Amino acid sequence: MINNHTLYPDLVILDVREQWEYDENHLCNAILIPVIHIETRISELEPYKDTEIIVYCRSGSRSVIASQNLVDNHNFNKIYNMLGGINAWIAEDYPVCTDGQPNINFNTIVISLAFLSTILFIILCFKKKILRNRK
């Protein structure tokens, strides 16, 4: 759902953890409303009543409570609980953000270095060919 912007162009990602957990890492573009604040901040979610909302927490416990609350007490009808929470997301090596920026993991660094090395190699080969042609 998160990667399918065609089927879910207005998807809302709702993080129901605490602020410190969100600051540590979160799904990119997530809205933070801790589960204990859902009732007092429900007006922030009202515009999305008929929009798909993925709810997540650390492991899936708080998001179940928040999801059930939104469905049972506030008549939201497109709520999806993320099983396993952000821990499962990270275990599958999906990207997370910190302070609004994606985390750069080891794989990203290796791929970037390989790409840059390839470009440098091509440039050096091209320069070598030009030098040979000038002789």
Word description of this protein:
This protein has 135 residues and is of the alpha/beta class. It has two domains: 1-103, Oxidized Rhodanese, domain 1 (3-Layer(aba) Sandwich); 104-135. It is 44% helix and 13% strand. It has helices at residues 19-24, 42-45, 61-74, 85-91, 106-134, and strands at 12-15, 31-32, 53-56, 79-81, 97-98, 101-102. The protein has a four-stranded parallel sheet with strand order 2-1-3-4, covered by helices on one side. A two-stranded antiparallel ribbon has the order 5-6. Helix 1 links the parallel strand 1 and strand 2 (31-32). The protein is elongated, with a radius of gyration of 22 Å. Mean pLDDT is 88; it is low at 101-106.
**Structural domains: how many:** 2
Oligomer: single chain
CATH topology of the largest domain: Oxidized Rhodanese, domain 1
Q: Provide mean pLDDT, rounded.
A: 88
Look at the structure and name the CATH superfamily of the largest domain.
Answer: Rhodanese-like domain
Which spans of ≥5 residues are poorly predicted at pLDDT below 50?
101-106
* Largest sheet strand order: 2-1-3-4
Structural class comes to alpha/beta
The percent range for strand residues is: 5-15%
> What is the ordering of alpha helices and beta strands?
EHEHEHEHEEH
- Helicity level, as a percent range? 40-55%
Largest sheet: 4 strands, parallel
Q: Give the C-level CATH assignment of the largest domain.
A: Alpha Beta
Supply Rg: 22 Å
Please tell me the CATH architecture of the largest domain by its name.
3-Layer(aba) Sandwich
Tell me how many strands there are.
6
How many angstroms does the end-to-end distance come to? Answer: 59 Å
Shape designation: elongated
- Count helical runs: 5
